[in-house]
């Protein structure tokens, strides 16, 4: 038999220096798998944005000053990072908007209620059960005064419900200006101011000819410094008692 020729033994240089797909020592590229991930390991999806969660929680709790900026920042980050949580961020913004609408509605309702209350006749200072003594500075428009005395020394009056017989009814009030001019001058200024004002307010009243002006005014300098308010009231011109409120 003829001896077989010696087979060529591969030298180290005969082995490829690179594996298929790249330099020796790197992972080969497999279609469908992004570079950098080994076969069988899918890329991880970014998680839920933390600010989106915070926006929802603070929005539901009514913490609008935090929820609104959290929600806006979260939406921006979600777009740029591809994170989840867009619905949470929007939910927080919607909840904050509802809280703002409730607050605005409550404020507007309170303002309207206040205006409506102030437009009505002021309630009498007297309780429905009986008369009450108050300072002349505490007399309100709409109060009915039980007994009236035209004197410079009057400091207290007694008010009663207007459906009871009474001496006078407070129709309006004016405030005098300047420094203390003396009791005579104050009395004259008060009478002039009230006569002009009541003449306009009661011009259409069917009782106009039966009424005359009665004023409560600060009768000394100490009272003047406390308040320059003058209460303009009306009494029965014939000295009788009034019953009920004076029709306008």
Question: Care to describe what's here?
Answer:
This protein is an alpha+beta fold and 248 residues long. Helices cover 35% and strands 13% of the residues. Strands 1-3-2-4-6-5 form a six-stranded antiparallel sheet. The longest helix is centred in the middle third of the chain and has 34 residues, at 86-119. The radius of gyration is 45 Å and the shape is rod-shaped. The relative contact order is 0.09. Mean pLDDT is 80; it is low at 21-26 and 118-124.
How far the N terminus sits from the C terminus, by CA atoms, comes to 147 Å
What string gives the helices and strands in order? HHHEEEEHEHE
Average pLDDT, all residues: 80
Helix share of residues? 25-40%
Q: Give a quick account of the main beta sheet: strands, pairing sense, barrel closure.
A: 6 strands, antiparallel
Strand content: 5-15%
Q: Strand sequence of the main sheet, in spatial order?
A: 1-3-2-4-6-5
What low-confidence regions span 5 or more consecutive residues with pLDDT below 50? 21-26, 118-124
* Structural class by SSE content: alpha+beta
Layout of helices and strands:
Layout: H1 50-60, H2 64-81, H3 86-119, E1 132-135, E2 144-145, E3 156-160, E4 168-175, H4 183-201, E5 211-216, H5 221-226, E6 229-236
Antiparallel strand pairs: 1-3, 2-3, 2-4, 4-6, 5-6
Helix pairs in contact: 1-2, 1-3, 2-3
